[in-house]
From TrEMBL, chains A, B, C:
One of its GO terms (biological process) is copper ion import. One of its GO terms (cellular component) is endosome membrane. It catalyses: 2 Fe(2+) + NADP(+) + H(+) = 2 Fe(3+) + NADPH; 2 Cu(+) + NADP(+) + H(+) = 2 Cu(2+) + NADPH. This is STEAP4 metalloreductase. Pfam families: F420_oxidored (PF03807), Ferric_reduct (PF01794). GO terms for molecular function: cupric reductase (NADH) activity; ferric-chelate reductase (NADPH) activity; metal ion binding. It comes from Monodelphis domestica (Gray short-tailed opossum). Belongs to the STEAP family. Residues 23-109 form the Pyrroline-5-carboxylate reductase catalytic N-terminal domain. Keywords: Copper, Endosome, FAD, Flavoprotein, Ion transport, Iron, Iron transport, Membrane, Metal-binding, Oxidoreductase, Transmembrane, Transmembrane helix, Transport. Coiled coil: none annotated. The chain crosses the membrane at residues 206-230, 250-273, 294-315, 350-376, 388-409, 421-444. The lineage of its organism: Eukaryota, Metazoa, Chordata, Craniata, Vertebrata. It is found in: Endosome membrane.
Length: 462, 462, 462
């Protein structure tokens, strides 16, 4: 619907609207300058470009003329600075022309925190008597050009002067964007850093899971392929496609889910030990807690893959062949094995536990969608994420335990003394659950609660 | 990304920003007061605390000093009231100091609608000459403290004075929160009630489905486990894990989905009967209509579980054993049963109907996501929710009917005169569909449409 | 949660709030007028209706009185114009009464772009000395009436006068709606068109996929049902339920996914050919690019169906019968076929490829949720949509190729010289991938990048 509305708009503007009297001036005829200039022109503004040498400017739609900076500045009181920070210097000469004008800083940097102060604040120092507004830096020129604003159309706006900010936000609205007031110029730096980020919070979870994956993979290959090949000269390489991933993924999902709740437990222990909550956690713990959501979502991804890999099992040729073989052997041996209720119980219940765990897991994933988590208040959020989250962890751990079933500690499953993967993957979740269980015992829970309510064991009374 | 941005910010603020000149005063050195004070301090504000006895205040980062209320009030024109409503009395003595100041009421109550008027309005009565703004009560102190704002970072702000409201919203932005203007102080009560809610609209759907679940469960246990145990001395207890849930869940899903559309039909009948739409519905109907969305989502959850439980069937040991047994018996009897096209038709088509029904069901679920339903206008929303919704209901009902297939009314399926569950679960949906079918017949549809356009059968012309 | 909050509010307002002193006047006692009047009355406003003939107005809650237009106008400075544009004429006579008043235009039209200028602008021409605000036209009277605001509660507001706009937005907040400032009156036309749209961007994708579906369907019916019926007199009609859809859907998904990336490639070729990016694309290409998101989501829907149809295979009676038959035949022939590792490899790896492809596909779908795509910046969005998108396309294409496996070009699969569907469905994706592969070769990639950075091959230097 988004694209559409913008599309509708630009069309509507083109065809039917009386040309808007507002004139907007754009400094710089580079890519972004021209893109936003065209867009504003399409949306009914009359646009004037300011350029170092107005003669040599590239193709522009007729109706837009290019003047010198000084001339262009006089034409409008809103000036969009489509210029790189490096070239701001010339503005000092235009002090008079720019006095009281609204300068919109649209610049971005090449790396995060490139300069001591944000470009907008730097601009404010260059032209102290102008009103600086930071905006439009999160929109891509190409998107403005092609009209395909299919990513975020949010425009973060900040500035110290209310009116000018409002003025710029109105322009944003008219361009079919959704301006978001971010407050004073103080936050300009963050707004400038924003477009440079590439999933910063996802790096740690992804690297971590990649490392874990590789470890599990090698482990499985040794255990499931190399071992039988050496001992029984059997080629099980085809297990690489499904069987082995389907050993790795559930382990990953379970471990990552446990790692979501581990930092909370460490934090609790720290607070109990320190007897206060007002001293900051070590950086690594802070960071860990901040990317719990991402860890959880990666875990969910692995769980999702595990489910799919499991559900296709009966379609696999290998499985069909094995099942048929079993039947044929039975007939050849001319004996029918009776149904064993216990093993029926085990197989059914581990499936059921897995399904319920996955169901709650999906629920957690849905509630972590921004629009959903914006709907719930803190009480509800804590309820879902901690209560339901732990229930999920319990179910998934139980699922793995029951999967092991009775053949758990039978030495037969050891190959070169290596236990199967699911046993390894049980270590972390079990630890987490045990620690949590200890922490919710009154003797620890009561003081912790008081600490979290602000009580301090040794608050110095002067 | 959210956490990150806030994180980025707090860091950026700490390291690189010139200390913001704004001074903010915080009354009360309790948990919330200290948390928000620290946060603002981190974000570059200079913070002053006001306290009953400044000496005895707990640990605070250096650079923040604690004064008496009167002194602190003079330091800043924005005062955050981190004090419980019960202790507002002392403010009367500070009338002069507080005159014209912006008082930010951050208080919450212990239960919904605890006091006749909202705390903010009560504060406004206490200090008539100050500008009251309600804000920050939806943010948890713990979250501000730890910086893990992973739930909603929305801050609902309301107040009668525009400038002061804007001022407070700017502070919110700088703290990395997203202030939402909620209008005048009139809505303060609702803002204060908000954090106390725990899924209020979900209670009815969840209780209802719990009750239904239990009924179905008992019913199934009697029919599937106790009956064969008594009559044939067979232990089918392992069916509890998967088979029986997989009888209950589809029934639940179908019934709850039907209950989503029942209130609309009742409302239509009421309106036809009354001949107007301007008289309010009975409370229970109103409430029912308001939690249709939640009912639908619970139904979707059951459908989702049903799908998973169905897809694991071929992996179940019991099923594999049964299938093998059948083959072996065939061979022993040395006859191969031919393939019956009709039963092939039935089994395939009930699977297909189920899949399509579930697909549409998921579609409905997705469109009920806040961010999606915000994208669609009323016309589109009605189209999806009523047209597609009814199509879903029809498909799911058909799925169940075909599942019954020809063995529908064969007495063989009766055990102790109890029909199987899917027959019970068909009652409500069939009723709904029949009623709907009657209502869309012109003779009823035409008057109903006119009534909904505002026409009244007996609008008294004086 | 939404419904609830509004519900809470309306209740709260009714019971506990002091009647709000603000008086709002509503012109017109039609359906919408009465609905919004009641709602405002419930929310504590004192409401006055203005009507042509005050005597003959329908049922209104007591406490609301109906006056003539002139009288009503004097009662309040906010007037909601619940009147059809056709009847605006009488306003000219009220010029004095309406001077300086805030007129809220809530009107909608019957078709998109019905009038040369928007109703709000028309109103502004009629009553030049009043402040016009466009609002509330996106809310349905029925929803206001019943309180079930379960679709979007967004109210798009625009107007040239800040104060009056803010005033109207406050009213919106108090009614439990979420006003969204859309800027000046220029955008009124778009706001008026909005409620009339019915998924405009979805039309093309849906029609296209419908056409493709029908073609594939007929093709399959001929190949899978008519052919064997004529040649072998076998009735395979039951394949219509699952087998044939499960041939069509994957083909659809693959083709539509490829069609998502085709326009981008065409655009790149056009730009390379033209040597600039500043000349607009042909309309059809623009439109195609604008509905890529929708195309992709339809493709995802088909992929989802394909997955479900595939996972139920082992439950199908026909499949079970076939598998059993094979076993029985083997036994009769008294030979056990050994397991073929190669075919094991093939069957497993095409399943694995399919699963991974579907997984990435779902990921793409999730990131295209408005609330998620609002979280990511342009760099992240491009990364996901282009990098991951192409990876998905590659995986899905490989999935289909491996599915073909070795029996790919064996003439045996030709029936009446018709290859099976999956071969047809490979044409478009392979073309896209080949073209893309050519385009990312440096000789083409380098100039393209420069063009997209704003460079122009023949930028005329005057």
């Amino acid at each position: 619907m988004e694209e559409n509305s913008s599309n509708e708009k630009s069309l509507a503007m083109n065809m039917n609207f009386p040309p808007n009297q507002d004139t907007v001036c754009v400094f710089g005829t580079g890519d972004f300058g021209r893109s936003i200039g065209n867009k504003m022109f399409q949306c009914g503004y009359s646009v004037v470009f300011g350029s170092r040498n107005p003669e040599m400017s590239g193709l522009l739609p007729k109706g837009i003329n290019v003047l010198s900076y000084a001339e262009a500045a006089q034409k409008s009181d809103v000036i969009i600075m489509a210029i790189h920070r490096e070239h701001y210097d010339f503005l000092t000469e235009l002090a008079e022309e720019l006095q009281g004008k609204i300068l919109v800083d649209v610049s971005n940097n090449l790396k995060i925190n490139q300069y001591p102060e944000s470009n907008a604040e730097y601009l404010a120092q260059m032209v102290p008597r102008a009103k600086i507004v930071k905006a439009f830096n999160t929109v891509s020129a190409w998107a403005l050009q092609s009209g395909t604003l299919d990513a975020s159309r949010q425009v973060f706006v900040c500035g110290n002067d209310k009116e000018s900010k409002q003025r710029v936000m109105d322009i944003g609205c008219t361009l079919g964007l959704t301006p978001v007031d971010q407050g004073t110029l103080m936050v300009a730096r963050e707004i400038e850093n924003y477009p440079l980020q590439l999933f910063p919070m996802w790096k740690f979870p992804l690297y971590l899971s990649a490392a874990l994956c590789i470890f599990y993979f090698v482990y499985c290959v040794i255990r499931e392929i190399i071992y039988p090949y050496i001992n029984e000269k059997k080629d099980f390489s085809f297990l690489l496609a499904i069987s082995i991933p389907n050993r790795i993924f559930p382990g990953m999902a379970l471990n990552l889910l446990a790692l979501v709740y581990l930092p909370g437990i460490i934090a609790a222990i720290l607070q109990l030990y320190r007897g206060t909550k007002y001293s900051r956690f070590p950086k690594w713990l802070d960071h860990w807690m901040l990317c719990r959501k991402q860890l959880g979502l990666v875990a969910l991804a692995f769980a999702f893959l595990h489910v799919l890999y499991t559900l296709v099992i009966p379609i696999r040729q290998y499985v069909r062949w094995k099942l048929n073989k079993r039947v044929i052997d039975q007939i050849k041996a001319n004996k029918t094995e009776p149904f064993n209720t216990t093993s029926g119980w085990i197989s059914d219940s581990y499936l059921a536990l897995g399904i319920l765990g996955f169901f709650l897991f999906v629920l957690l994933g849905i509630t972590s969608l921004p629009s959903v988590s914006n709907m719930v208040n803190w009480r509800e959020f804590r309820f879902v994420q901690s209560k339901l989250g732990y229930l999920t962890l319990v179910l998934c751990t139980a699922h793995t335990l029951v999967y092991g079933g009775n053949r758990f500690l039978s030495p037969s499953i050891l190959r070169w003394y290596l236990p199967s993967v699911y046993i390894l993957s049980l270590i972390i979740p079990c630890t987490v659950l045990v620690l949590k269980f200890i922490l919710i015992m009154p003797c620890f829970d009561r003081p912790l609660t008081r600490i979290r309510q602000g009580w301090e064991r040794n608050s110095k009374i002067s």
